[in-house]
């Protein structure tokens, strides 16, 4: 078990989160307050909420792990993950927020149902697809929380998961998006400050930025190139990977729904640049920490556990040698917990919104009173936490593959119906249904074929030049264009109401 | 520079500069929806 100071530091963090939940619960009067924070968030709260939502457990453990394993060719995620926030705001947020204020949207499914005149079919398909991909992504987050709590406290997996689930579930359930947003403010500040302090310590411990690059170059010159000549992270793959991160994350249900919660669309003016710079600095530092791990391991300063994802432990082991004060490791644990929990809470709330609002209120029981919808939102938040906690305790093999596919499936499913809906007046309901369903199915199909390295019909799916999600995106796009051209056009009145056209703002 | 080949500095630095400039332009020109 951990020492008293470690337990105290983690306990203070947990109590702070619960206090935010208790405070936020007093502001929740109806479903709109609960699911979109009464459309009242200011710019800085919104920016930090967006950073917290995008910054998942993978941002800390996985980013440095990938840098450790493959070097500079993976640096592009440091640019395109932070840019996903700006992409989401500019290409989705400006229009969606403006329409949402007049039409009273609570979820992005409201927009899809309105724009494509499909109050049942497309709303149901997109809500169910959104719930499935969010649940999958959520399990991955809980797994990351468990890794950190086990490493710091040396407690069993089930206990680590119960503690983490309990805290996140309590503050999310009672406070809704108000709690998620303000917890996100604290969590994002912890993440930004914490990484800016701790990452340089690891890099200096390894001998400094230039020395780290020189050592990597001597081990393998490809480790310091912007892309690999062939194989993983060759140029075509890098381009598709960049699109995946920027567009896939931007249209992920737990990210895009945030744009409905801001007070005034004018707050979108500087939010993209501020989010890009702030989160970009953190992401670059995390990647450099992974590079530093190359040196620390090569010179025997740290030893990684002999597990398949050993690279994910680089930052944990690096901080232990760079910061030789055991009590302060708990601070690092809080940073990781902050990153993971800021995504977890938003995912749970998004699942609650998609079920209670899109499935229950809009399809099953349109006359349901607001109090009932609010109650169902809270029940679904708790249920989603319980289901994912149980799955994370003993994750089936299939689940690990689905988590790996996460953002790719989001890109294949949601990107084309959203972009075409907002910018192409020719996009039709049938086109959207075909695009979304084919995108979802082909993203899963290409993901499996790529993951299992299937070689069939003369195609080696282990060596396809682009990220698997790019093929699903292309198929989804072709389906949208072909089916839309063959089917009845959407009424001009609807297109005007939903600000459809080749512009962002006018 | 920094122990890196020129192509890495140019490619990564170039993309960061272009993205930053684009977001700066957005900030300077966006007036909000009417």
C-alpha-based Rg of chain B, rounded: 15 Å
> Shape of chain A, please?
globular
Largest sheet: spatial strand order of chain A:
1-2
Uncertain regions spanning at least 5 consecutive residues of chain B: none
Through-space gap between termini of chain B: 48 Å
How many domains in all of chain B? 1
Let me know the average pLDDT of chain B.
Answer: 93
Ranges of chain A where pLDDT stays below 50 over 5 or more residues in a row are none
> H/E order of the elements of chain A?
HHHHHHHHHHHHHHHHHEEHH
What is the CATH T-level topology of chain A? Answer: Sodium/glucose cotransporter
Q: Tell me roughly what share of residues is in helical segments of chain B.
A: over 70%
Oligomer: heterodimer
Report the β-strand fraction of chain A as a percent range. under 5%
Record field, number of beta strands of chain B: 0
Distance between the termini of chain A: 60 Å
What's the number of helices of chain A? 19
Strand count of chain A: 2
CATH architecture grouping of chain A:
Up-down Bundle
What does this structure look like?
The complex is a heterodimer of chains A (506) and B (34). Chain A has one domain (4-393): Sodium/glucose cotransporter, CATH 1.20.1730.10. Helices cover 75% and strands 1% of the residues of chain A. Chain A is built from 19 helices and two strands. Chain A has helices at residues 4-25, 31-36, 43-54, 57-70, 77-103, 108-115, 121-153, 157-205, 209-219, 235-250, 253-256, 271-298, 314-322, 326-364, 370-393, 397-423, 429-451, 468-486, 492-497; strands at residues 455-456, 459-460. Chain A has a two-stranded antiparallel ribbon. In chain A, a hairpin with a 2-residue loop joins strand 1 (455-456) and strand 2. In chain A, helix 3 packs across helix 14 (326-364) and helix 14 packs across helix 15. The longest helix of chain A is centred in the middle third of the chain and has 49 residues, at 157-205. Chain A is globular and about 65 Å long. The termini of chain A are far apart. Chain B has one domain (1-29). Chain B contains one helix and no strands. The longest helix of chain B has 24 residues, at 6-29. The A-B interface holds A 72, 75-76, 79, 83, 86, 90, 94-95, 98, 209-214, 216-217, 224-226, 264-266, 268-270, 272-273, 276-277, 280, 499, 505-506 and B 2-5, 7-8, 11-12, 15-16, 19-20, 23-24, 26-27, 30-34.
């Amino acid at each position: 078990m951990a020492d008293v100071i470690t337990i105290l530091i983690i306990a203070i963090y947990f109590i702070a989160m619960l206090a935010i939940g208790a405070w936020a619960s007093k502001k929740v009067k109806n479903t709109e307050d609960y699911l979109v924070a009464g459309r009242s968030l200011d710019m800085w709260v919104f920016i930090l909420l967006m950073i917290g939502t995008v910054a998942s457990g993978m941002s800390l453990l996985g980013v440095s792990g990938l840098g450790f394993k493959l070097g500079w060719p993976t640096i592009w995620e440091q640019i395109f993950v932070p840019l996903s926030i700006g992409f989401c705001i500019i290409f989705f947020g400006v229009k969606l927020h403006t329409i949402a204020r007049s039409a009273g949207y609570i979820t992005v499914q409201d927009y899809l149902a309105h724009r494509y005149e499909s109050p049942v079919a497309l709303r149901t398909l997109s809500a169910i697809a959104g719930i499935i991909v969010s649940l999958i992504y959520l399990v991955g987050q809980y797994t990351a929380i468990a890794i950190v709590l086990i490493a710091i406290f040396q407690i069993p997996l089930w206990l680590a998961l119960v503690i983490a689930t309990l805290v996140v579930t309590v503050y999310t359930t009672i406070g809704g998006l108000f709690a998620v947003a303000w917890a996100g403010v604290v969590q994002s500040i912890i993440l930004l400050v914490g990484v800016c302090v701790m990452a340089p310590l690891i890099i200096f411990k390894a001998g400094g930025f230039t020395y780290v690059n020189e050592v990597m170059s001597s081990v393998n010159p490809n480790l310091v190139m912007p892309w690999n000549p062939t194989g993983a992270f060759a140029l075509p793959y890098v381009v598709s990977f960049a699109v995946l991160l920027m567009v896939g994350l931007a249209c992920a249900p737990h990210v895009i729904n945030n744009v409905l919660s801001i007070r005034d669309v004018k707050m979108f003016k500087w939010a993209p640049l501020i989010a890009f710079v702030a989160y970009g600095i953190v992401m670059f530092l995390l990647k450099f920490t992974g590079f530093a791990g190359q040196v620390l391991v090569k010179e025997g300063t740290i030893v990684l556990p002999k597990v398949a994802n050993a690279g994910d432990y680089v930052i944990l082991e690096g901080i232990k040698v760079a910061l030789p004060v055991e009590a302060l490791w708990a601070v690092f644990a809080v940073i990781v917990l902050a990153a993971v929990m800021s995504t977890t809470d938003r995912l749970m709330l998004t699942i609650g919104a998609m079920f209670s609002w899109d499935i229950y209120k809009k399809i099953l029981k349109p006359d349901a009173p607001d109090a009932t919808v609010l109650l169902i939102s809270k029940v679904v938040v708790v249920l989603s936490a319980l289901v994912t906690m149980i799955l994370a305790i003993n994750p089936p093999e299939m689940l690990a593959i689905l988590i790996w596919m996460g953002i790719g499936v989001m890109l294949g499913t949601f990107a084309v119906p959203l972009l075409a809906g907002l910018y192409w007046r020719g996009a039709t309901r049938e086109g959207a249904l075909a695009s979304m369903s084919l995108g979802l199915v082909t993203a899963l199909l290409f993901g499996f074929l790529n993951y299992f390295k299937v070689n069939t019909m003369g195609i080696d799916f282990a060596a396809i030049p682009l990220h698997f999600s790019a093929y699903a995106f292309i198929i989804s796009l072709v389906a949208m264009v072909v089916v839309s051209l063959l089917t009845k056009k959407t009424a001009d009145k609807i297109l005007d109401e939903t600000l459809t056209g080749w512009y962002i703002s006018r | 520079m920094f122990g890196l080949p020129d192509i890495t500095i140019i490619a990564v630095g170039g993309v960061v500069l272009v993205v930053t400039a684009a977001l700066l332009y957005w900030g300077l020109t966006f007036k909000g929806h009417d």
